[in-house]
Amino acid sequence: MMNQEESAITFGYEASEEEIQKVILAWAQATEAFHYRFAKLDRIINTLQTTARRQPSASRARLNRLIELRQHMGDVLMTLLLDMSGQKTGQSAQLSKPGQLYSHANLLDELNRQIDAELISVTTVAQA
After folding, report:
1. 107 burial type by CB count under 10 A (0-12 exposed, 13-18 middle, 19+ buried)
2. Are 38 and 70 in contact (CB under 8 A)?
């Protein structure tokens, strides 16, 4: 007698090798850009914290917003890493699917745009 998993028929779209390569490349580029922005944000926060110690009147609200953004970035990265590893509760270990990588790449791209907007405002204020 076959168990349910063995007897289940799966229907779905099978991605071509070229599509999978494009998705992996998009994911890798988004991840690399995300890491770059995280490091840049971290340097800016450290600089602002040093300045705030010397000049307590420095913009605490901006510093707090950047620290929250960095925390959010770390949370997103950890969530994606757990998602990729398949270690969620009740989830069997399986390789990531192209759709999952595509979703991750889109999420990282969107977060990168938000980070860019915040970093541009910080750099503009710092240059003034």
Report:
1. middle
2. yes
Which of the pair, 35 or 54, is modelled with greater confidence? 35
pTM of the model: 0.65
- For residue 97, the Cα-to-chain-centroid distance in whole angstroms is 17
Token output for 119: 């970093």
What is the C-alpha end-to-end distance of the chain, expressed in Å? 75
Residue 63 and residue 48 in contact, taking contact as beta carbons nearer than 8 Å: yes
CA 27/CA 37 separation, integer angstroms: 15
* CB contact at 8 A, 15 and 101: no
Using the predicted structure, report yes or no on whether residue 48 has a pLDDT greater than 70: yes
Q: What is the pLDDT of residue 64?
A: 86
